[in-house]
Amino acid sequence: MAPRLLQILTIFFLSSQLVLAQDINTEDIEDPNRSGVVVVEQPEEYGLSYKKRRTKHGALFSINTEKFYPTDYISLFQDGYVEDIISDRTIDLVGVELGYKHNVGAMSFSVLAAYSSGAISGALVADKRTISVNKQALSGNVALDGILEEPWVVPYAQAGIHQFNVSESNALESLSATTGISFNYRYGLLFQIDWIENLVDKTAKLERLKSSGLENTYIDFYFSDHLASSSAADPSDLLNEGDPNMLSVGEMGLGLKMEF
Q1: Among 51, 94, 156, 224, which one is most buried in terms of CB atoms within 10 A?
Q2: Which residue has the higher pLDDT, 159 or 16?
Q3: What pLDDT digit, counting tens, does each position of 30-86 carry?
């Protein structure tokens, strides 16, 4: 009888251990806190072409210089026109531009804020004059930079609003005025110059992407138009009062633009 009882107890003990082991395994599977989570991070592929690696969002920064000649400008002293003071010489406006860029398919859309300034000296008869100009602008830009694998040449168009601050001085005094808000237009081409860097050092672009996120560097060649404000002085009347008339058409500009 004893051996029979011992055999029954042994079978019961082994069965209970088997059931307990199955319960433990089930808990391990069903309890998310006991199961390990493996996270696989995909490394960024810097070696891909711009078209394949670009994201939806970016930033733009540029420095530029453009010619500016306000053809209908009347002296703030109301004693002459722009050609009487500086002849046919243009004002060189030097500026910076910064903005947000959104990439969509073959195109990109940007919102840009800009500031530029410049000055020129001349004379009206024997009276020496200096005209100083600064401009604040806010613009929208459309560029075709997603057509090619690399944006070797990018046509673009831009339109926005701007405001000029103008001062004019002679040997005795200085006058200043601020124009109303008016419209400006720009159209141009961006020429990518990263290939020059690649000729010198083929690893430089990869290192640049990793360290600063600089995607492209361009030479920006463009033409711009500035409309006069609605309250600008009438150029046909020398004594007409109003905002300085800063109308200019087809002025050429050149800049260095960087995309991040």
Answers
A1: 224
A2: 159
A3: 444 545 555 444 445 667 889 999 999 999 999 999 999 999 999 999 999 999 999
Other C-beta atoms lying within 10 Å of the C-beta of residue 212: 10
Which tens digits make up the pLDDT trace of 151-170?
999 999 999 999 999 999 99
Long-range own/partner contacts, residues 243-246 (CB < 8 A, 24 or more apart): 243/177, 243/178, 243/179, 243/180, 244/70, 244/73, 244/74, 244/76, 244/164, 244/166, 244/177, 244/179, 245/70, 245/72, 245/73, 245/74, 246/70, 246/73, 246/133, 246/164, 246/166, 246/179, 246/182
* CB proximity list for 15: less than 8 A, separation 6 or greater: none
Name the residue with tokens 């672009």. Answer: 205
pLDDT band at 240 (very low <50, low <70, confident <90, very high): confident
Closest CA to 144 of 187, 112, 97: 187
Dist CA 203 CA 102 (whole Å): 27
Residues near 90 by beta carbon (within 8 Å), at least 6 away in sequence: 67, 68, 69, 120, 251
Tens of pLDDT, residues 19-31: 434 444 444 444 4
Which tokens in the block code for residue 209? Answer: 């992407």
User: What CA dihedral angle connects 191, 194, 65 and 155, to 10 degrees?
Assistant: 20
Q: Where are the alpha helices (DSSP H) in the chain?
A: 2-30, 50-53, 82-86, 194-200, 204-212
The CA distance from 153 to 148, in Å, is 9
Alpha helices for 62-142 (secondary structure H): 82-86
